[in-house]
Amino acid sequence: MAKILLVEDNEMNRDMLSRRLERKGYQVILALDGEEGVTMAQSEVPDLILMDMSLPMMDGWEATKLIKAAPATSQIPVIALTAHAMSGDREKAIEAGCDDYDTKPVELARLLEKIQALLAKRGVA
Amino acid sequence: MKKLFNPAVALMNRLKYPQKFILISVIFIVPLALAMTFLLVIINDGKEIAQKEIYGNRYLRPLRQLMEHVPQSKLLVNDYLGLDKPIPAVALLSKQAEIDQDFKDLEAVERELGDVLQTTSKYQELKSSWKNLRGKQLTLQKAASVDLHDKLLANVRGLISLVGDTSTLILDPNLDTYYMMDLTLLKAPESQDLVAQLGFVTDDLLARRFVNPQERAQLIILSGLVKSNLDEIEKGKRVAFSRNPMGNLKPRLDPYYLEVQLSTQQFLETLDKGVANAFVINLKPIEFRLLIQKVLNANFALWDRAIVELDSLLQARADSFSQQQALVIICSFLALLVVIYLLIGFYRAVMRTVSSLDEASRRMVSGDLTGTVNLDNRDELGLVAQSFNSVATALVAASSYRQAVLDNAVDAILTIDGRGKVRSFNPAAERIFGYSAAEMIGHSYVRLVTEPYRDQASGVESGIEIEGQSKNGTVFPMEIAVGQMDLQQERMFIVMARDISNRKKAQEALRQAEEKYRAIFENALEGIFQTSPEGHYLSVNPALVRIYGYSSTEEMLFNLRDIERQLYVDPNRRADFIQLMAESESVQEFESEIYCKNGTIIWISENAHAVRDEQGKLLYYEGTVEDITERKRTEAELQRAKEEAEVANRAKSAFLASMSHELRTPLNAIIGYSEMLQEEAIDLGQEEFVPDLTKIHSAGKHLLSLINDVLDISKIEAGKMDLYLENFEIATMIQEVVTTIRPLVQKKNNRLEVYCDENIGLMRADITKVRQSLFNLLSNASKFTEEGVIRLDVARGPLSKGQAGPEGIVRDALNSSVEYISFRVTDNGIGMTPEQLGKLFQAFTQADSSTTRKYGGTGLGLAITRRFCLMMGGDVLAESEYEKGSTFTVLLPSSVVEPRPALSIQPATNEQATIGTILVIDDDPSVRDLLKHTMSKEGFRLESALNGSAGLQLAKQLHPDIIILDLLMPGIDGWSVLTSLKADPDLADIPVIILSVVEDRSMGFAVGASDYLTKPIDHDRLSAVLQKYRRDQNTHTVLVVEDDLLTRQMMRRGLEKEGWSVAEAANGRLGLEQISQRLPELILLDLMMAEMDGFEFVTELYKHEAWRSIPIVVVTAKDITAEDRLRLQGHVERILQKGSYTRSELLSEVRKLVMAYVRQGSIVKA
After folding, report:
1. Burial level of A42, CB count in 10 A (0-12/13-18/19+)?
2. Binary contact (B715, A106; C-beta < 8 A)
3. Interface test with B, best of A8, A12, A17 (most B CBs within 10 A)
4. Partner B contacted by A78 (CB < 8 A)
5. SS3 readout for B178-218
6. How far is it, in rounded angstroms, from Cα B20 to Cα B14?
7. pLDDT tens for each residue of B474-494
8. Set of chain B residues whose Cβ sits within 8 Å of the Cβ of A105
9. Cα–Cα distance between B889 and B994 in angstroms, integer?
10. Looking at the DSSP assignment, which residues form a beta bridge with residue B964?
């Protein structure tokens, strides 16, 4: 069972997405901000990270960069979740090292496709 | 020494040359004449003496005869009376006759010379004594007779003495003649007398034969006397002979002397022996008498001879004196003649020099300056002539100089004599006064000046201003200078006059300008100053005084002495000012804070420049001062407001960002939880909740899209929307969109048909915006269509006519030369009325408000889509028919470029080939936009520059086919640009069309413009003009030799779109046929063809000389082998492999090559 780290500061989004993903059979661990996300990525070594970009303390780009810079976590695929209106976010996300990105509000079906694609690429069922 | 000669010099200077010569001649000749005269007198004296002596000698001759005859007579008387045997009286009488004869001779001589020799009285005495004796000789007693004879003899001898005296014989200066004289005058008579006495004495003795002692003594004395006399004679002879220069005396006289000596010695010896010392005298009287006679004869012979010799000597002397005299006279005369001759020569020589000098100087004075004096003199006058020539040369030079000065002087130069008559009038005078020199010379000057100045006394003056009057009556101000010179007792005035009208005008203009400047200076609102480089005020105007808060200029100048320290708040400000001045000679809007008089601080702005003298030395700074305190305050306020606004803007951006976040977060929750609830409700089998949950969900979604739209449009409006360009696969992107939209389409039972080539390739754009635009169009179509067909067509290519629709949408942004990707969404829904179509793209406007209620949405979708497209250099076209359906087409360049900042040069970025490039040089960017439409229609590529220098630079880079040039531009204006273009050999051939509001065609064409259009732009007129300059399409033919019909047509379309004429041939043979009909500029050749393939075609083509130069581009699908390349080597320009290019790429490549070769060809042809 794939372990997904969801880094999301917004409680409702976190609750919603985690519950929906768990229902789809993923193990979901949660981090509330970028720093925690980086720490948990290292301690838990998830199979995939869903990273909200607009986070308090340390934002998602910064966190992604750190994750991608550390050898232990650099192989973990990161899907950036950005606000729709911010068109530049996608580039920034890719630049930061994200493997894919999706816009919020999350369209679960599309997100699941991306998650599955990335996991499949890594050979995780 | 000099002083000594001063009187002589003075005297000589007063005399003319003839006088000088006469004076010198007289002074020289008089002493000469005197000396000569004296000499002549002396000679004459000698001559006279000689003559007198000759006279004396002559006179002596008869006296000598008497000296012989009288003693003989006495002897005869004695004999007659004393002798025993008396002698016959006859003898006595004959002797008496001889004596008479002698007296006759004497009388003759006396008559002739008596006066001269003053002998008359003595002669008379002698004559009377003879008269007394004569006749009585024989009658008288012997003693008386002897006595009378003695008396007669004494008288003779007295006369001889007298003659010797008076004839100066005894003073004879020469020794030979002297001794001859001595002999004849003294010694001979002495001897004669003594011997005669002896004879007389002895006569008795002999007769008596006895001598008494008394008588003996007498005899001894007498014989002694004879002896001494003889010695004297002998002595005189020796002297005479030795001192005889002619040497003829001795041979002539010596025998006579010898005879005298011998005879006298014999006589004396005889006397001594026979008489004196003998007691008895044995001598016979007769013998003795013979002896005596012999002595006497010898004596007389000598005497006679001596007289003759004396005479000849004297005569010779007299002759020599005459000769001397003649010689002296002749010499004197000759000398005089020579002197006179030379003097005359000297005089004439001098006079010749003088007169030629005189003549030359006269010539010179009369104005002929060519003559110099040509003389061969080597004397001082020659030097004078040389000097004269030098003077003449100098005078010629001086005269030429003077003439040149007179002729070329700007000022009028006149000579006026003492009576006011003009004597000379130079060309400048003629010009200034309008009179010719001929009209003025000899006439009064008064008509040259106006009335008030005519009577003014003229004196030497300089720089006075009077009024002149020219011939045509014009009165003008004139500045004159008067000099005077005294020429040959005549006073002349030299007047230099200058027309100073222009100067006056200039002064007046200057004065007015000065006044104007002064007025500006005094009344300007801006402060005006001049400051020294050291930082003092040189002058300030009232405005500056006011600005700085002083009450008067004086007060300010008195108090504000050090600008650096007293004026500027920042002590370095003055240094900054000077630094800027040193860098750029001027400062603009140099803003500083300064202290006013009362200490308040104000802001000023200075505009100033440095003023330098001709050598570049800094004189002072000059400029204006503006009190910008108010402006500064406003600016500060504005700045503050701006900052506030920026803060607000940042706040707004942050607000937008947070809105997007804050609005979406709860919405996401609503949407997410409602979706989740739906799923869970289904899972829990409580399906009755599902429809409500679905409503919540879709309402949330709708709200989200509304919020997104509002946020988007506000970002666009705020200019905050950025483009993120990337290359992406069009087909993939379409697939994503279709996936997203499909549910929406299906909602109203519509069918979606997508036509997109899988291999349509990449495009470069902002994918998010493209996706959103397409989603908007498709979602609109879905919204307004029910149970219909929604169709999406995606295509690549240039704009087609259909796409440039007539619906009034501005399509300036579109460019026919750019490749576009078109996304066409067609529906058969409710469609729109034209009215609705017109308002279609306006934000916040839907077709009508009811639409919103019926169909939902913000109405922002199309507005956002259009703005996205415009941002990417594309557009959205809309066509619609009410109740029939609508077609929306998004046109985007296949390669979107970053929008450039405005007002910059637009470099050539478009590599697409066109029929030509036009460079627009215009500072108004709108002109470029306006022209773009016409240009594109005509098939030109447009490049633009916003100023002259950028235009020139771009012209050099691009070498455009046409340049459209504005005239009025900041910086380099259009005229200068045009001139520079035409001066550059590379650019001179580019036709330049002037497009300006300025109407100056003649000037334009003169400078080299090809056409001249005026603003506002008349597009028809512009098209017509451009038509003129576009390349003649018919002359540029491309032959496509290609067996595949589709490829051929594709190429034809592509090329024709660019304006080329295309000929087609299906194989090589047909291709050659085509070429024989018309020579193409380029051949596009396929290799693999039936009948005649490309290789053969090339070989055939090269058989024709005229066809060889046609460039060939091989376009083939064949794999080219090395052998193939070899066959084509040197014959084809380029080989394009069909497989390695997409169709459009291939076409574009072909187009480029065609352009390049045709251009090259046309250049070669040119």
Report:
1. middle
2. no
3. A12
4. no
5. HHHHHHHHHHHHHHHHHHHHHHHHHHHHHHHCCCCHHHHHH
6. 9
7. 888 888 888 888 877 788 888
8. 664, 667-668, 671-672, 704
9. 38
10. B920, B993
| Residue B775 amino acid letter | F
Looking up tokens 């018309």 gives B1078
Task: Give the nearest chain A residue to B721 (CA atoms).
Answer: A87
What gap in Å lies between CA B750 and CA B828, rounded to an integer?
A: 10
Whether A117 and chain B come into contact, CB under 8 Å, resolves to no
How far apart (Å, rounded) are the C-alpha atoms in residues B1085 and B1111?
Answer: 10
Å from B642 to nearest chain A CA?
26
The token pair at B126 is 């002698």
B669·A54 Cβ contact <8 A: no
In angstroms, the separation between the Cα of residue A48 and the nearest Cα of chain B is 21
ipTM over 0.90: no
Percent over 90 (pLDDT), chain B: 2
Phi, psi (degrees; rounded to nearest 5) at B485: -145, 145
Cis previous bond, A105, omega within 30: yes
Chain A residues closer than 8 Å to B668 by CB: 10, 12-13, 16, 104-106
Contact list in B for residue A81 (CB cut-off 8 A) is none
CA closest to B739 among chain A residues: A110
**SS3 label, residue B511:** helix
Contact: B704, A16; criterion CB under 8 Å: no
For residue B617, give both structure tokens. Answer: 């030395």
Q: Does A70 touch chain B (CB under 8 A)?
A: no
Helix (H, G, I), strand (E, B) or coil at B1108: coil
Residue B267 host element (H or E): helix B249-271
Instruction: Name the least confident of A34-43, B241-250, B597-606, B1016-1025.
Output: B1016-1025
Pairing label, strands B726-729, B762-765? antiparallel
Q: What are phi and psi of B1112, to 5 degrees?
A: -120, 130
Cα–Cα separations (whole angstroms), residue A53 to A10, A33, A43, A64, B599:
11, 10, 21, 9, 58
Half-sphere exposure of B1099 (CA within 13 A, CB side): 9
Rounded-to-integer distance, Cα B228 and Cα B234, Å: 10
Q: What percent of chain B is helix, strand and coil (3-state, nearest 5)?
A: 60, 15, 25
Summarised one tens digit per residue, pLDDT across range B53-91 is 888 888 888 888 888 888 788 777 777 666 555 666 777
End-to-end CA distance of chain A: give it in Å, rounded. 7
Partner A, chain B 938-977, Cβ-Cβ below 8 Å: none
Distance between CA atoms of residues A64 and A94, nearest Å: 10
Interval B375-399 mean pLDDT? 78
Separation of CA B949 from chain center: 40
CA separation for the pair B900, B917 (Å, rounded): 20
Threshold 0.80, pTM exceeds: no
Indicate the pairing of strand B1134-1137 with strand B1112-1116.
Answer: parallel
The residue in chain B having the minimum alpha-carbon distance to the alpha carbon of residue A107 is: B672
Q: How many whole angstroms separate alpha carbon B611 and alpha carbon B927?
A: 41
Cα–Cα–Cα angle for B57, B132, B197, nearest 5°? 60
The 10 Å CB-count burial string (b at 16+, else e) for B25-43 is: beeebeeeeeebeebbeeb
Residue B774 · residue B758 · CB < 8 Å: no
Q: Are B405 and B398 in contact (CB under 8 A)?
A: no
Helix (H, G, I), strand (E, B) or coil at B323: helix
Q: Which residues pair with B1063 in a beta bridge?
A: B1039
Q: What angle do CA B44, B47, B52 make, to 5 degrees?
A: 125
Helix (H) or strand (E) holding B736: helix B730-747
Other Cβ atoms less than 10 A from the Cβ of B95: the count is: 19
Q: Which of B27-36, B252-261, B706-715 has the lowest mean pLDDT?
A: B706-715
Nearest CB partner across the interface for B708, out of A13, A85, A91: A85
